[in-house]
């Protein structure tokens, strides 16, 4: 990929992301932000830091899903006809045929669902990767179904695939860092235990010499 193609890709990504959020009224963002801040302060105060933060992150997940529905369905312009394509991976065939403008859309459809995977990993208890994938897939299928029935967007299987992939990536990113943290924590504890044992041995040897 040349420098100009890279710049065009980033420009298209920024333009597409802007189109997802600019039609949502400002009071939606203000209302959701206010609710989150109020709940965060009160939940931490009443339930403690750990439980309060987990509860607040669960609320943040719900609010982010609401924003997804707003940007993809509720505040999209109504089309004249229903537009859909149920062929899996048709967009990649179209990209190979020259419709390169579909590539940024595919990438963005992955990126916008990464926060869903991240929040699903940390907010609910005992969340597994396959449950997160099912939830992300369910959200995407619901969006595509609403788009089809209300004629508010292009319904396609590829969006479901990309959204589900984004959920899996988000869940996997946090899981990866958790594993790294646990390994480092175990190594630190192991070194501390060895240090304590070594000091005890030195103290015991000193006592025996005396």
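-> sequence recovered:
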């Amino acid at each position: 990929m040349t420098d100009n193609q890279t710049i065009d890709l980033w420009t298209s990504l920024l333009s597409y992301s802007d189109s997802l959020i600019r039609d949502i009224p400002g009071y939606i963002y203000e209302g959701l932000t206010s609710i989150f801040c109020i709940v965060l302060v009160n939940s931490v105060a009443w339930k403690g830091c750990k439980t309060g933060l987990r509860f607040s992150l669960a609320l943040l997940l719900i609010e982010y899903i609401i924003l997804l529905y707003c940007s993809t369905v509720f505040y999209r312009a109504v089309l004249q006809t229903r537009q859909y394509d149920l062929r899996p991976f048709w967009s990649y065939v179209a990209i190979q045929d020259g419709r390169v403008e579909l590539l940024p859309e595919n990438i963005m459809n992955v990126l916008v669902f990464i926060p869903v995977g991240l929040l699903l990993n940390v907010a609910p208890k005992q969340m597994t990767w396959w449950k997160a994938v099912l939830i992300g897939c369910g959200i995407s299928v619901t969006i595509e179904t609403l788009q089809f029935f209300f004629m508010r967007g292009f319904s396609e299987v590829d969006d479901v695939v990309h959204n589900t992939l984004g959920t899996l990536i988000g869940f996997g990113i946090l899981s990866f860092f958790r594993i790294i943290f646990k390994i480092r924590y175990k190594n630190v504890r192991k070194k501390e235990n060895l240090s304590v044992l070594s000091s005890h041995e030195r103290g015991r040897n000193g006592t025996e010499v005396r």
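The chain has eight helices and two strands.
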